[in-house]
């Protein structure tokens, strides 16, 4: 590795020297004409631009080489950290660090070609890097857990983001109005910055949670929140930007809320419709006979939901997320086996690459974005205020959710005993962990690129530094925080219906006959006993019927009470499960595969046991 | 589909109208500032550019939506054509056609944002679209067939491309020198155009050959030629461009040849070294326990070979091709099973998408490249001369190869009977088919983007139209030509050691226990009886030892003679097989897997039977 790194540095230095020797204009003001994507000859022939297309080709090769090299280093470190069981330093922190080191080298070396080619480009981010992550999240989402915790998720995602943005916006506005920093921004701009810094990042925290196998409930709440968060921040930011430079009116608030709800609903519908479209296409054609074409089509149509939704001024993220969920829920069972495997692995691989890439990009940008204006005090104030803002969002809303569940539980069961006997839906440790999980990610930076006005680069620099700081500080301490708070780890997810029969070492030839094949064969018979119709599952489940009876005797311990509550709350979503099973699945799934379609839903009865 | 198309058109019209209403500058001269990749805000704030980042985001979403929509249409048509067994129209022709239709719509609609966003960009082509195709070609290459026909391939690829470029260059130079078209280009520029139009395209022809299961020998020759062709055209073109605007000297010829040979060798070595590096990394680490990281790393390191090689002024295509071959030959056996499957499917999927994308791009470019200058006579002359040039390359060189093999056969066997008894290495039908397979592809267009000088856009337009014409004319008639020439089709490749156990319909639940599992299990025991050490395989092969004896009796019919010749010629490459088996494989392959490593090489004894 070190040899390769030396080569890289030498290569960079060599290129830099070449660039210098050729007298390329190194004036940073000349940058607009030489951004990535401009390498094609028509743009290359701008007056004063003496670099030939071949040289540009070379530079873009080196830029891509560096990027891939950083990705390789990050992945390699990730392997090394996992292998050595080092948990203090996280992969994403290393990605940012590598990005910073190389960013510094690029900044110091003469010539601006590579520097321009590796600049953070919000268009690349939104169109290339973000979709795979969101799609994979939707596709890999544990649907049972997600919909069981939908109330908490929506509360944190919608009012939570709103509170966070407003608190942050107000603090920033007051600070800048004090005039200590000689910057002066309008309230709408402060709110825009608040919105960019309210998008929490799913990547780091969830990879840690995955490694520790944290309690699925906490995992689902934080995951769901951070996913919807992004969508909501984007919509809020865009709404704010529409009011940029105009006097803020009180009616704008309602206009904004209405716009938000409309956007969210329409985007959700677009995603679901496209997912269903894929399911029907696969059902009514013979395309599964050509799995190469089939896998391409599934991938492409999923992406279409993103671009179509964005193109219609809706939220592509929401559409893509729900498209992924719908694909997994219906279309998955109409695919050929090969496509099932291909799609799953490709989504995973693209998401993994994008995640690492994004953090490297962030690190790089700290040095390669030449126009940034860093104001230390503003950065410190912003850093403190995002903690305040998150505190204001998480704790009151957690108490609200707890209160909501307590009221509901009392109403459902009648009042037995005092309130204290009813456990919190979100206990204090979970609240603290949710607060701690509020690190900010690349979505914020990408949004901040769209800021307008005089202090654009000051605000962008602030957002960038704050995001990197949260990832380093909160991301680096999450593992420790899990231990301090005593949160249950090592939970095995029973619903994990994965295709991971290949997640093993290359089988030894001798063991081959019993190794992967055994697991592959085992999977099949195990389908039969569990595939009871869902509608009767609750009755057949000895655990839940037992707990319902014991609860009526009012001699329940906390554990039993929780299970009872789960039963009550999940009964609300039972109507959809029944409707889905009896009406939707026969329509969307291939009749030949309806049996195997039920296979996955064998997990649904286990929902009850899963909400602990 | 038609609804979606209507939406697309409406969407386009709507966007166009919006763009118009906003008074966006539609002057084509203003295009340089608004190329793809420019959508990020720093570039968006050029003076006079009133479009906000949000609007630009919307436009890039629509551009991507259109691209993906075209890809989906092309893939869907491909499914439809295969399903209905329609062979007159080929998928790539349809891709070009769809591209042209949408290009026309975009051209006619007001506003230039989408038009700019979908412009053919040679940087995207070389850095994003081409690598997957080349990597997949190398990875899927039938190594035994390739190295058995290496002589023919190299002859067609190296002197063939050279002859073709020179003939084409001379014809073009003479035509322009006549002064009928009022364009005047130097000889070096004519030679550059010759080089761009000498890169034959592997995509269309090989997908037809695959569908028909054409004789592997013909397949391999055309495949190998078109792969190396691209690399050689690129090197030739770049060499020519270095002499642009300078007086041509005779010594430049030798300089060019020396440069070419050096480039080819170094690139090949880079590719092989990186492939071996991956094999050693996988062997000496435990990374196969983390297949997600492993698959990403294999993919990334393979790409690194491309960018590293390009960055060093070498040929990335050659490096990537040989990196793919080395990966399959060594690294494949050190991977976890999951990575083997992931890598294979991802390479295939990316290659499939890139191929379709490239042809759509070509079609689009005919209308969206606003600066093109079409000169009908020049196009006709160029169209005729590429046929002449290919004729001059294919037929004399085929005769040369035939002569070479005849001499060698006579020397090896002593002279038994007359020359006529020795069959041609490349019979006339194969020569004709090789001539016919000379359609030009996107590499030529991408190279032509790099042309310099006053008549740049005239030459680019000519190259673009000629490429599209060859694909439509030769691509459309290949299937018919195969029948007319009576070329053997429906050959089953015995060496096809594929992972396609999932290339089946989603298994019916009842048949599940016997269906795919049976085939999966079958694969394993079948390894044992064939995995005899390679060094003794020739002796054990009853067919070849039989034919060797019968040849000494000089009572052989043509069929037997051919097999004898194959034995003689392949004996030359036997030393490498032995060296590989006894020295290289133990070093590069994981000792635990050496047994399964041999599994694939069980196909090597079959080489002999395969050269018919």
UniProtKB/TrEMBL annotation, chains A, B:
The keyword Lipid metabolism does not apply. GO terms for molecular function: potassium:proton antiporter activity; sodium:proton antiporter activity. Residues 536-554, 591-612 have a biased composition (Polar residues). Residues 1-21 form the signal peptide. The chain crosses the membrane at residues 62-81, 93-110, 122-139, 151-175, 187-211, 257-282, 314-333, 345-367, 379-405, 457-479. It holds the Pfam family Na_H_Exchanger. It is found in: Membrane. Residues 28-49, 536-555, 589-612 are annotated as: Disordered. Keywords: Antiport, Ion transport, Membrane, Signal, Sodium, Sodium transport, Transmembrane, Transmembrane helix, Transport. One of its GO terms (cellular component) is fungal-type vacuole membrane. Belongs to the monovalent cation:proton antiporter 1 (CPA1) transporter (TC 2.A.36) family. NCBIfam families: b_cpa1 (TIGR00840). This is Sodium/hydrogen exchanger. It comes from Lachancea quebecensis.
């Amino acid at each position: 590795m070190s040899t390769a790194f030396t080569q890289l540095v030498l290569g960079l230095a060599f290129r830099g020297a070449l660039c210098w020797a050729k007298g390329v204009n190194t004036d940073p003001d000349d940058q607009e004409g030489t951004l990535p994507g401009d390498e094609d000859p028509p743009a290359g022939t701008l007056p004063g631009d003496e670099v030939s297309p071949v040289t540009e080709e070379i530079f873009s090769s080196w830029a891509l080489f560096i990027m891939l090299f950083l990705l390789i280093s990050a992945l390699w470190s990730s392997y090394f950290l996992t292998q050595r069981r080092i948990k203090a330093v996280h992969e994403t922190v290393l990605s940012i660090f590598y990005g910073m080191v190389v960013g510094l080298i690029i900044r110091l070396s003469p010539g601006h070609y590579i520097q321009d080619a590796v600049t953070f480009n919000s268009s690349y981010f939104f169109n290339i890097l973000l979709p795979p992550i969101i799609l994979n999240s939707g596709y890999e989402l544990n649907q049972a857990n997600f919909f069981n915790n939908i109330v908490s998720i929506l509360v944190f995602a919608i009012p939570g983001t709103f509170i966070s943005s407003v608190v942050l916006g107000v603090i920033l506005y007051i600070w800048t109005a004090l005039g200590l920093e000689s910057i002066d921004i309008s309230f709408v701009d402060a709110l825009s910055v608040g919105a960019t810094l309210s998008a929490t990042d799913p990547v780091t925290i969830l990879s840690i949670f995955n490694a520790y196998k944290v309690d699925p409930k906490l995992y689902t709440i934080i995951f769901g929140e951070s996913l919807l968060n992004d969508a909501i921040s984007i919509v809020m930011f865009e709404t704010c930007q529409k009011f940029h430079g105009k006097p803020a009116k009180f009616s704008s608030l309602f206009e904004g809320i209405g716009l938000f709800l409309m956007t969210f609903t329409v985007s959700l519908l677009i995603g679901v419709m496209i997912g269903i479209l894929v399911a029907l296409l696969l059902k009514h054609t013979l395309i599964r006979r050509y799995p190469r074409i089939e896998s391409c089509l599934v991938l492409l149509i999923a992406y279409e939901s993103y671009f179509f939704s964005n193109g219609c001024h809706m939220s592509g993220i929401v559409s893509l997320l729900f498209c992924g969920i719908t694909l997994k829920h219906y279309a998955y069972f109409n695919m050929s086996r090969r496509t099932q495997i291909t799609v799953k692995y490709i989504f995973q691989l693209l998401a993994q690459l994008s995640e690492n890439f994004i953090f490297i990009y962030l690190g790089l940008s700290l040095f390669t974005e030449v126009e940034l204006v860093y104001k230390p005090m503003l950065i410190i104030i912003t850093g403190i205020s995002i903690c305040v803002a998150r505190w204001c969002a998480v704790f009151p809303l957690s108490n609200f959710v707890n209160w909501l569940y307590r009221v509901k539980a009392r109403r459902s069961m009648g009042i037995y005993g005092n309130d204290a006997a009813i456990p919190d839906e979100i206990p204090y440790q979970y609240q603290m962990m949710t607060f701690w999980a509020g690190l900010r990610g690349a979505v914020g930076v990408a949004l901040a690129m769209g800021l307008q006005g005089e202090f654009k680069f000051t605000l962008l620099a602030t957002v960038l530094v704050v995001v990197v700081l949260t990832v380093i500080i909160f991301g680096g301490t999450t593992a420790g925080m899990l231990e301090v708070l005593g949160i249950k780890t090592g939970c095995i997810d029973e619903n994990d219906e994965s295709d991971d029969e290949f997640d093993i070492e290359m089988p030894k030839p001798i063991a081959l006959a019993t190794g992967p094949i055994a697991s592959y064969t085992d999977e099949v018979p195990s389908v039969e006993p569990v595939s009871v119709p869902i509608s009767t599952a609750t009755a057949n489940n000895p655990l839940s019927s037992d707990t319902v009876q014991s609860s009526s005797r009012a001699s329940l311990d906390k554990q039993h009470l929780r299970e009872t509550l789960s039963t009550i709350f999940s009964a609300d979503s039972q109507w959809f499960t029944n409707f889905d099973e009896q009406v939707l699945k026969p329509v969307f799934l291939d009749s030949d595969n309806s049996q195997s379609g039920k296979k996955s839903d064998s997990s649904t009865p286990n929902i009850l046991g899963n909400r602990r």
